[in-house]
Amino acid sequence: MTFALLLSGAGTAVADETPTPTPETTVAAHAAQAAEDTGFQADNPGWPNATDHTQEAYPVDAEFTAKWTRADAMQIQRISDPNAASGESSLPEQYTMPEIADGFPTTSEDVWVWDTWTLTDDAANQLSYNGWEVIFALVADRHAGYTFDDRHTHARLGYFYRKAGTETSSTGGSTASNGEWIYGGHVFPDGATGAIFEDQSFTAQTEWSGSARLMDDNKIRLFYTSVAFYEGSDSDYGGDDGGDTGKPYDPRIVQSEGRIYADDQGVWFTGFRDQHQLLVPDGHYYQSRIQNPNVNFRDPFTFRDQNNPADTTDYMVFEGNTAYVREPEYVDEAAAAGQNTEVASCKAEDLGYDEGDPQAETVDEVNELGGRYQLANVGLARATNKAMTQWEYLPPLLSGNCVNDQTERPQIYFQDGKYYLFTISHRETYASGMMGPEGVYGFVGNGLRSDYQPLNDSTGIALGNPINLNYNPGKPYAPDWNQSPYTYQSYSHYVMPGGLVESFIDSIGGNHDASPVRGGSLAPTVRILISGSTTTVDRTYGDGGLGGFGHIPANLSRSNGGDVRPARLE
């Protein structure tokens, strides 16, 4: 349809009867004309085309960062059912985690459990040790007087163990097995993880997510995020809500080394007293606390490139933000620190629309909507010494500028010669105009640094909670009346060997009675089938797609190599 037809209508109106064009019809007309001029063809009429990603590999240290664009993220809304009724999910079943409808067992009566990871080797194989499967998790005291939603500033790294080969089922819901996990206690001695901070005046110091590598014999290198909160500091994860009147909270990536031991009674550790600070945001590739007091920087995951055996480098992916200055008021301090001083703004490449696409947003529109505040990226670093105590930054692997603000707990997954970048994100951290579920997002490429293509018809959704995108989501503690009761059922998913995916239960129900059941326990494991650029939820796995609660199995075994074990500490 041409500009003239839009102005005159489809009838035989004479010139003096032509309606006065509105701004909306004028914009639409210009867009239609631009599409005609460029030869644009819509893949799905009424929706923008996704950005074309080649999956092409680049040198690992190349100045190339793949873009998760707004055009890509729009595909999530495209596949959502606009007619899904109140309380139902609007997402396709093949990308959606089955509903945890019959309750759940408590993993531990002593502590809440959320982000969880395994004992691994450099290929992310999950290892049993002397006949025990071992997991690490963020934990917080259930009986200390604070609420489940206040747990983030009280988080400690805890560990659990169970006999290798344990099989359980989710059948029975709340009466099912908790996975047979035994809580072993805190990993770090009290006070050890706060020692790295030069400023010891913090009001709270906490331990956030990471990964664990079993090295030679029984040596473990534990990578994690140590965080200090100061009076007046604040973040999306806690603090004292004092606004910006105090010092920004301080997240750092740290390594600590310990030893694992096991006998027929259980598993315990020694060491983990010395802390080695590895990375703080540089303000060049990764936004610093100077550039944004609420910066996201955490969740180290280490590995070696399994598709390139000649490369013996130890790499790390982590959650970061693109290193723009959030507000002009922070420019001077960033300049004094030698950091990037460009104030955050969306660019055409962040939007990723085809030339002439009539459904495309403009850069000005997105900036005016506040899209510039969402600056998620997945960072990359490499170790420069054998002890893995010294690291150097590389450019980010992926940016989600103007799409989302959080790409949490990223990991690299190897299959069939491909590189899969998995990360998790929230519904509420999307930029204005963007929507998506709580869950796992995935991207595939031909190298560690690639032009990563979002999985599943460019939506990026690998495993989402049931959600209805036709209605507001609400919050886990106050879901929208019309929302699916399972929108917040689980989070912090971690993709394991064989496509198994574990997570923790956050919040179920509460839509109609305003009383959601809060979690803090391990969710049922599910399985996704991964092939090329697609994943599908395997609903033949377990009970209708739900495996055992906290089913986190080892796929390889390791012994202690004959080390003499110290006396067990009671």
Short overview:
The protein is mainly beta and 570 residues long. The protein contains seven helices and 31 strands.
Give the topology, please:
Layout: H1 3-8, H2 23-38, E1 57-58, E2 66-67, H3 70-79, E3 111-120, E4 127-129, E5 132-141, E6 156-163, E7 182-186, E8 204-214, E9 219-229, E10 234-235, E11 238-239, E12 250-263, E13 266-279, E14 298-303, E15 315-321, H4 331-336, H5 348-351, H6 363-368, E16 375-383, E17 391-401, E18 408-415, E19 418-425, E20 439-445, E21 449-450, E22 453-454, H7 455-458, E23 461-464, E24 474-475, E25 478-479, E26 490-495, E27 500-508, E28 517-522, E29 526-531, E30 534-537, E31 556-558
Parallel strand pairs: 2-17, 3-8, 4-31
Antiparallel strand pairs: 1-21, 3-5, 4-5, 5-6, 6-7, 8-9, 9-12, 10-11, 12-13, 14-15, 15-16, 16-17, 18-19, 19-20, 20-22, 20-23, 24-25, 26-27, 27-28, 27-29, 29-30
Main sheet summary = 10 strands, mixed
Note the overall shape.
Answer: globular
Q: Which percent band covers the strand fraction?
A: 25-35%
pLDDT < 50 stretches:
1-18, 240-244
Descriptive overview:
- This protein is mainly β and 570 residues long.
- The protein contains seven helices and 31 strands.
- The protein has helices at 3-8, 23-38, 70-79, 331-336, 348-351, 363-368, 455-458; strands at 57-58, 66-67, 111-120, 127-129, 132-141, 156-163, 182-186, 204-214, 219-229, 234-235, 238-239, 250-263, 266-279, 298-303, 315-321, 375-383, 391-401, 408-415, 418-425, 439-445, 449-450, 453-454, 461-464, 474-475, 478-479, 490-495, 500-508, 517-522, 526-531, 534-537, 556-558.
- Strands 3, 4, 5, 6, 7, 8, 9, 12, 13 and 31 form a ten-stranded mixed sheet that branches. It has a five-stranded mixed sheet with strand order 2-17-16-15-14, with no helix packed on it.
- A hairpin with a 2-residue loop joins strand 10 (234-235) and strand 11.
- The radius of gyration is 25 Å and the shape is globular.
- The N and C termini lie far apart (79 Å).
- The relative contact order is 0.18.
- The model is unreliable at 1-18 and 240-244 (pLDDT under 50).
